[in-house]
Backbone:
């Protein structure tokens, strides 16, 4: 199962893309080593990989369940372990994970996806407690449905309108809606904020 990992130097800066299996520690190690050769220390990790096959619970095989967790949770585990030594050496780091507002709302046919995103929230909180003394903050973003090439190719068009009507801001979100939030969480402006999950979903979850 191959996914893409992007390693970007900075906002608006030079970036590198690597095609690799993000669930395979050896593949990730090669990509990270190549990025270090180009950029030096890697001190910011944004984990936003996720898969979301819509399946009724009685039709989810254990292989299906493990595949979702492998991409959505295990890949974050591997990336954190690979990048943590460099962050600790510098006594500075930023880790941002992408959870989902469905963790709070609950959506049918996505039990494995929602369970995996709950694990991301828990992992984020645990890491924040463990790594704060090293100058490393760990936070999560919980988005709503985002219009991307992948979601457009896998979901019915009407589903976007349905979700938008559940929100206070009644439009479908796009990746640009999250760029500023990521920028804030990875900056020194957020140096005293850790272990938090920011719900960025157009007002679907208001409490």
Residues:
């Amino acid at each position: 199962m191959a996914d893409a990992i992007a390693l970007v130097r900075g906002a608006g800066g030079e970036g590198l893309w690597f095609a690799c299996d993000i669930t395979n520690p050896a593949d990730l190690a090669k990509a990270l080593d190549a990025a270090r050769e180009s950029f030096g220390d890697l001190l910011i990790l944004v984990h936003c990989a996720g898969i979301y096959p819509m399946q009724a619970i009685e039709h989810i095989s254990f292989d299906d369940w493990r595949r979702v967790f492998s991409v959505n949770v295990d890949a974050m585990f591997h990336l954190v372990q690979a990048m943590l030594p460099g962050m600790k050496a510098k006594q500075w780091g930023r880790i941002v994970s992408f959870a989902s507002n469905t963790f709070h709302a609950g959506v049918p046919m996505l039990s494995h996806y929602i369970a995996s995103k709950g694990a991301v929230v828990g992992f984020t909180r645990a890491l924040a407690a463990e790594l704060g003394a090293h100058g490393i903050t760990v936070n999560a973003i919980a988005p709503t449905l985002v219009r991307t090439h992948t979601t457009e190719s896998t979901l019915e068009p009407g589903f976007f309108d349905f979700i938008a009507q559940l929100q206070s801001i009644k439009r479908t979100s796009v990746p640009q809606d999250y760029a500023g939030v990521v920028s804030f969480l990875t900056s020194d402006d957020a140096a005293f904020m850790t272990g938090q999950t920011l719900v960025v979903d157009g007002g679907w979850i208001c409490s």
